[in-house]
Amino acid sequence: MEIRKGVPLPDKQSSRYADLRRLFTDMDVLDSFVFPDDGLGSERYVRSAAFRYGKQLERKYSVRRIDDVTLGVWRTE
User: Fold this and answer.
1) Angle at the Cα of 29 (from 41 to 67), degrees rounded to 5?
2) What pLDDT is stored for residue 5 in this prediction?
3) Any bridge partners for residue 72, and if so which?
4) Residue 58, in any domain of the structure
5) Strands, E, within 1-77: which ranges?
6) Surface-to-core class of residue 73, CB atoms within 10 Å of its CB (0-12 exposed, 13-18 middle, 19+ buried)
7) Domain limits at 43?
8) Residue 42 and residue 69: Cα distance in Å, rounded?
9) Are residues 71 and 64 in contact, defined by beta-carbon separation less than 8 angstroms?
């Protein structure tokens, strides 16, 4: 490995995960959203986010598999 000098930092790439906080924050009880499961860890990420934001926001969320490629997230409390 070598040190490179003068290489500009690339712009941040947006991610489909970036909007999750807004979704969890804006949900009312019994609201839901769907999230595509890419098979590369997105289910684990969404379940973890539901638990984490539930703790932070003092709410409860439920994540269920709708079909082979889609997850649904509901606010339950």
Assistant:
1) 35
2) 87
3) 34, 64
4) yes
5) 32-36, 61-67, 70-75
6) buried
7) 39-77
8) 10
9) yes
> At 41, phi and psi to the nearest 5?
105, 0
What is the per-residue pLDDT for 41? Answer: 86
Structural tokens at position 51: 């638990």
Total domain count for the chain?
Answer: 1
Question: Which of 60, 56, 65 lies closest to 75 in space, CA to CA?
Answer: 60
Structural domain includes residue 46: yes
Q: Is residue 70 part of a domain?
A: yes
Residue segments in the chain with a per-residue pLDDT below the cut of 70: 12-18
Q: Are 76 and 60 in contact (CB under 8 A)?
A: yes
Q: Is 71 helix (H, G, I), strand (E, B) or coil?
A: strand
Query: How many alpha carbons lie under 13 Å from residue 28 in its C-beta half-sphere?
Result: 0
With respect to residue 2, please indicate whether it lies within any of the assigned structural domains.
no
Q: How far apart (Å, rounded) are the C-alpha atoms in residues 43 and 70?
A: 9
